[in-house]
Amino acid sequence: MLVEVLSPSSTDTDMTVKAAKFLNITSLEFYIVASQDEPLCWVWERNAASREFPKLPAELRGRDCKVPLVFFVIELPLAEIFARIGI
Prior knowledge:
By secondary structure, the protein is an alpha+beta fold.
């Protein structure tokens, strides 16, 4: 699993150039890009059957959302990821 935190200067790179590179790592199961400004994550999850990543990430928004990390058999609540951010 790889998690990137966006900053204004890296948004375009993290969502395009880095994503394209990281999604080619054969051992990578999840690529998660997290906003630094709000409880928002974009999640690419490798398909267990085809072993491919989706073209577009799932967008999860709000403290009530959970990132389902099926490969690890856990859910990661956005409330925990963004716990120390006063949003």
